[in-house]
Amino acid sequence: MSSQKKKAKMIAAINQRGCLLVYPLENRKEPASLWSELYPRTKMRWEWDQEGDNRVAEMWVLREELSRSEEVIYAKWFRNRATFFSKEVFVNLLAWLGSSQGRVTLPRSSQEALDSFLLDSPQSTKIIKENLGWQGKMMESHYNRALKPLWNYLFLVGYGEVQDSSFPSLNMAATQNLFEDLWRESQELEAASAEAFLLKKLGPDNLFFKYAQKLVKI
Q1: Is 29 within 8 Å of 36 (Cβ atoms)?
Q2: Helix, strand, coil % over all residues of the chain, rounded to 5
Q3: Quick one: residue 154, left, alpha or beta (phi over 0 = left, psi -120 to 50 = alpha)?
Q4: C-alpha span between 163 and 201 (Å, rounded)
Q5: For 100, left (φ over 0), alpha (ψ -120 to 50), or beta?
Q6: What's the CA gap between 107 and 147, in Å, rounded?
Q7: E strand or H helix at 21
Q8: Is the dihedral of CA 156, 163, 64, 49 positive or negative?
């Protein structure tokens, strides 16, 4: 199967399921992943050497390309894992979580980071750390704590990668800037109707739904 056909299949799976991890957690069936959608009878192994499964690395490349497609939305969301959303699920999550409607109070450091993204998006990990003066190992935990609520409440999305160090770095953007139309659409939705949509689309036992449910209660 060509890369183009795989990407089309991945997008179709994301839109059908609403929400998918890129890789499975310890090869469990739930929460569902793109790997299990494309290779349902194949256990994923993390070996990246010459004897490893090249489909693992290929999927990471396709993930980067999909994140820039704007056909689906990418974020470090479920337990800080690489997660894709269909647009309709993403819009309803924004409404249910209250992110676009001013119902989320962010810690000061998180708000500081978000303000920087709102002024300039996308930014790589290296650039945002430089802009906020959060470089160095001493500031690494501070940086991770500050960004976690922004990912959890979908104030941030991932948008490709840049080569700004020895390894590619995730490009991050304020949702409000990159997906302004979806942000505005979510502002028109009532939290109760958004919850009802997600409940019907994902199901009450869906681990993505349960994860969002916990965030709403915080």
Answers
A1: yes
A2: 55, 10, 30
A3: left
A4: 37
A5: alpha
A6: 10
A7: strand 19-21
A8: negative
One digit per residue, the tens of pLDDT, for the chain of length 218 reads 788 899 999 999 999 999 999 999 988 999 999 999 999 988 888 766 666 678 888 999 999 999 999 999 999 999 999 999 999 999 999 999 999 999 999 999 999 999 999 999 999 999 999 999 999 889 999 999 999 999 999 999 999 999 877 778 899 999 999 999 999 999 999 999 999 999 999 999 999 999 999 999 76
Nearest in space to 127 (alpha carbons), one of 180, 163, 178, 176: 163
pTM of the full structure: 0.94
How many angstroms separate the CA atoms of 186 and 98, rounded?
9
Cβ(183)–Cβ(97) below 8 Å: no
Torsion of CA 213, 202, 102, 182, to 10 degrees: 160
Tokens 């010459």 sit on residue: 50
22 in Cβ contact with 33 (< 8 Å): yes
Q: Cα separation of 110 and 70, whole Å?
A: 25
| Bridge partner residues of 21 (DSSP) | 33, 83
